[in-house]
Design goal:
binds magnesium ion; alpha/beta; 4-stranded antiparallel β-sheet; binds adenosine-5'-diphosphate; cell inner membrane; CBS domain; 6-stranded mixed β-sheet; repeat; ABC-type quaternary ammonium compound transporting activity
Length: 350
């Protein structure tokens, strides 16, 4: 449905706002771009509907390069909601909702019918249709802005922080409403947020950006389970990380009983032999520093894996793989889930 191929954007005299973004989204997915202010979220959105042209790379919608489309036509085919929703003050709510339909030359009767149909979706009665924007609360105006984007039944909708200016209570209820609406309508939605809670609540997949670069693109569950690096962990927040892992085990529990220490005298090869003797399935090698900190050091493990995988192969042993930034207890959970017995190994050979 939507594909980015090595897309970059450099503003005049500026640094790269978006750097070599390659992504692929399916029809009906709810995608949330998230990252700190200035990381290139809005730039990315605007490139999709050609308000901004990429400096390099290509964007495809349904397999068609957007550069082959007329920009005005393209914008009519894509719904766009921004933070400052900007309803037209001199138009009624009905006219505001029907704006794009008018551009698409729908007859008035059909536009009216569509507006009536839509307004019920967001829990407002049809008599709101004849009101003017100033007669609505901020939250209600925001709902109308969303309906305007949905009116033409465009399959792709871009939403740039549409809820961030709302008070928390209105925001919460709108998020819920909107998620339900999306499940009903099945549109492809590209949503921008700087709020991880919002992203976790709404998205099928979350794209995390930092300084214009892709950091991680995964489902909310996977992002909580396997944050790509410390930046993501920080962005998620420690509280949420711990919440996401109900079966917390302390490092002490994990490294018991009697972890083997690998030192210069005591090699990993011996540990593997021991593993064979004890008929366990895996070694969990963690360097001492990170045992103390409760985190696994990735590079260390990766190097270890390279060094030992040949040995492991020779012994037909499964070496346990740990990805970057994985918490020990999470690694352990995976071992236990697969019913593997393991020997804890502390690497002191540093
Ligand atoms: P976000 O939406 O994630 O906050 P933006 O896409 O708006 O980030 O901006 C990304 C970077 O590009 C920022 O460093 C910003 O200052 C810069 N930028 C955005 N718009 C322009 C512009 N029109 N001209 C020059 N630089 C811009
Ligand atoms: Mg922005």
């Amino acid at each position: 449905m939507l594909k980015f191929e090595h897309v970059s954007k450099v503003y005049k005299g500026g640094e790269k706002a978006v750097n070599d973004l390659s992504l692929h989204f399916k029809k009906g997915e709810f995608i949330c771009f998230i990252g700190p202010s200035g990381c290139g979220k809005t730039t990315t959105m605007k490139m999709i509907n050609r308000l901004i042209e990429p400096s390099s790379g290509s964007i495809y919608i349904n397999g068609e390069n957007i550069l082959d489309k007329d920009p005005v036509q393209l914008r009519r085919e894509i719904g766009y909601v921004i933070q400052q929703i900007g309803l037209f003050p001199h138009m009624t709510i009905q006219e505001n909702i029907g704006l794009v339909l008018k551009l698409l030359k729908w007859p008035e009767e059909k536009r009216k019918a569509r507006a009536r149909e839509l307004i019920s979706l967001v829990g407002l009665t049809p008599d709101y249709l004849d009101r003017f924007p100033h007669e609505l609360s901020g939250g209600q105006q925001q709902r109308i802005g969303i309906l305007r984007a949905l009116a033409a039944d465009q399959p792709l909708i871009l939403m740039d922080e549409p809820f961030s200016a709302l008070d928390p209570i209105t925001r919460d209820s709108l998020q819920e409403e909107f998620k339900k609406l999306q499940q009903k309508l099945g549109k492809t939605i590209v949503f921008v947020s700087h709020d991880m809670d919002e992203a976790l609540k709404l998205a099928d997949r979350i794209v995390i950006l930092r300084d214009g670069e892709l950091v991680q693109c995964d489902t909310p569950e996977e992002i909580l389970r396997n944050p790509a690096n410390e930046f993501v962990e920080e962005f998620i927040g420690k509280d949420r990380l711990v919440q996401a892992r109900p079966n917390i085990q302390t490092v002490e529990q994990i490294m018991n009983p009697n972890p083997i220490s690998i030192t210069k005298d005591h090699s990993l090869l011996e540990a593997i032999q021991l593993m064979k003797e004890r008929r366990v399935d895996a070694l969990l090698v963690v360097d001492e520093q990170h045992v103390l900190e409760g985190f696994i050091d990735v590079e260390m493990i990766d190097q270890k894996r390279k060094k030992t995988s040949l040995v492991a192969d020779a012994y037909e042993t499964e070496m346990f793989t740990v990805t970057e930034g994985t918490l020990i207890r999470d690694a352990i959970r995976r071992i236990l889930k697969r019913g593997m017995k393991y020997i804890p190994v502390v690497d002191q050979d540093r």
